[in-house]
Amino acid sequence: SDALLAPCSREALGLSVLEAMAHGVPVLFSRSGGHLEVMGSGNAGIPFSSRDLQSLVNVLRALAADQLPLRAIGVQGQVRQRAHFCVERHVDQLLGAYLRTLNEPRSKVGA
User: Fold this and answer.
1) How far apart are CA 37 and CA 44, in angstroms?
2) What are phi and psi of 90, to 5 degrees?
3) What's the CA gap between 32 and 66, in Å, rounded?
4) pLDDT, tens digit (0-9, with 9 covering 90-100), for 47-85
5) Which one-letter DSSP state was computed for residue 30?
6) What residues does 4 pair with on adjacent strands?
7) Who contacts 77 (Cβ-Cβ below 8 Å, separation ≥6)?
8) Is 66 left (phi over 0), alpha (psi -120 to 50) or beta?
9) Would you call 47 helix, strand, or coil by DSSP?
10) How many Cβ atoms are within 10 Å of 110's Cβ, its own excluded?
11) What is the C-alpha to C-alpha distance for residues 98 and 78, in angstroms, rounded to an integer?
12) Tens digits of per-residue pLDDT, 26-51?
């Protein structure tokens, strides 16, 4: 696949977007919902306005004319996915939360 088009404006966390990023597939995404959090503010994807059809048309025309650095965008997306959304990171964060909870002093009941 050359790219993934993610036009949804109400998706909380797009698994298809994360999967594409994990495989280095560039993502064309609407600037809304969870896409903004997943994609960040860098060059991990190609944004377009979710309420402006012409914005999407412009991105698709640039894609068709081979004017977008898809390979570099795909690599940036892969780097972002691995840094922020990989399973190992989530396991480490969850384990850290458990350990912090276990190490906190217990409050006295009725004190």
Assistant:
1) 11
2) -65, -40
3) 25
4) 999 889 999 999 889 888 887 889 999 999 999 999 999
5) E
6) 27
7) 20, 21, 24, 25, 26, 27, 39, 44, 45
8) left
9) strand
10) 4
11) 28
12) 999 998 888 888 898 888 899 999 88
